[in-house]
Amino acid sequence: MNAFELALKALKQNNVNNKIKLVDQLHSLKEQTKLNYQAEYPIRSVKAPGRPKKPNLVRFQNIPKRDKSDLGFIKTIHAICHIEFNAINLALDALYRFRDMPDTFYQDWIQVAFEESQHFQLLNNYLAELGYHYGDFDAHNGLWKMTHETDYDVLARMALVPRVLEARGLDATPKIQARFKKSKFVKMVDILQVIFNDEIGHVKIGNTWFHKLCQQRNLDPIQTFDQLVQKHIGESLRGPFNIEARKLADFSDQELDYLQAK
Hints:
The chain is mostly helical and 262 residues long. It is built from 10 helices and 2 strands, in the order ααβααβαααααα.
């Protein structure tokens, strides 16, 4: 089975359940070593991944702040669910888009896509217990932007999606857990811990490939990262940073010093 063909099919799938089934198929075929990662297959720009008609996507600035009411907490759960749905597509695009990488690169991103789909299901199932579903509230459309902007180079993608977008989740999760611990939605604390533990591994995968690519191209990792941050984000990354979690995800001491010095 051509891994790229199946990844694109999953990426473009609009139906949530069908997307998850295709990700499960990718993962199963990976485990059975039945995927071809070096086959020829055209690379196309994907302006927008497959997604259901709801949630309605709006600019981040147009989403009202969530208060401490029960509905506010439920909207927060929905927002995290939206992040995890998008994370499935981010992983699928990394798998589909970048060619001439070692087989282990593609296997890593299949694993990430599979784990993100598990996270999405945990959250969506909990929403269902509460009488809601994914799509019931507006969500922001900024999560795909960085993926589309880094189509041109696997190094840029590894630098900015796992090491910036996913790593921000490592910084934010403990505070979010603390808020849920004081609410009636305490089940979220354990769900977020599952996600947090897996996300450390996802960021670690990004770090591994970023550093391998820098080494192959004789590039300084910190200087290269800084250049890409300035090019695509336009400003220094803001803390506070979860130093312990970032160390577990293989950020070096020099990289952590760079982040904290900004």
